[in-house]
Amino acid sequence: MIQRIQTLFLILALMFLSLMFAFPYATFIDPEAVSYVFDFSGIYGQQDANMVINILPLQILIIMVPVLSLVSIFLFKNRMLQMRLCVFNMLLIVGMLILMAYYIFYIKGELSAQVYYKVTLLFPFISVIFTWLAFRSIRRDELLIRSIDRIR
């Protein structure tokens, strides 16, 4: 049932996760006033565009999580698999947040820089909430179907 509320929650989670491709996550300013940007393409200097660190594991996660959310939208006929994918997606988002925190603290220590966080860092938290709400709605539907089957 693609018109259910869990589809709306999964679409909202997908939307917030997709916005992470376009906006930076944090900005670093070192003691020499050199600015560095942390976004989907990596951590690089703003003036000279030299790559400071490659974030390939994080890029893979940032690509996998919205794709998994999109796949779970279209698995509305198999609610058990949809619930499992929601849980797996939440775990991947938490892993993505941990990896982002690692990169931020690593670069902060490496460059002795001041960190300025962007609002984009809140998007994974928001999408975890929406994915959890979708999981709850899917579970409620599954319990309703099972209770109706029990009556027959």
What does this protein look like?
- The chain is 62% helix and 13% strand.
- The protein contains 4 helices and 5 strands.
- A 5-stranded antiparallel sheet has the order 4-3-2-1-5, covered by helices on one side.
- A hairpin with a 5-residue loop joins strand 1 (26-29) and strand 2 (35-39).
- Helix 1 runs antiparallel to helix 2 (56-73), helix 1 runs antiparallel to helix 4 and helix 2 runs antiparallel to helix 3.
- The longest helix is centred in the middle third of the chain and has 33 residues, at 79-111.
- It is elongated, with a radius of gyration of 19 Å.
What layout of secondary structure does this protein have?
Layout: H1 5-18, E1 26-29, E2 35-39, E3 42-45, E4 51-53, H2 56-73, H3 79-111, E5 114-117, H4 123-151
Antiparallel strand pairs: 1-2, 1-5, 2-3, 3-4
Helix pairs in contact: 1-2, 1-4, 2-3, 3-4
Q: The biggest beta sheet, please? A: 5 strands, antiparallel
Number of helices: 4
Q: Mean pLDDT, nearest integer? A: 90
Rg measurement, Å: 19 Å
Q: Pairing-aware structural class of the strands and helices?
A: alpha+beta
CATH architecture: Up-down Bundle
Uncertain residue ranges: none
Find the count of extended strands (DSSP E, 2+ residues).
Answer: 5
Strand order of the largest sheet: 4-3-2-1-5
Keywords summarizing the entry:
152 residues; alpha+beta; Butyryl-CoA Dehydrogenase, subunit A, domain 3; five-stranded antiparallel sheet; 4 helices; 5 strands; elongated
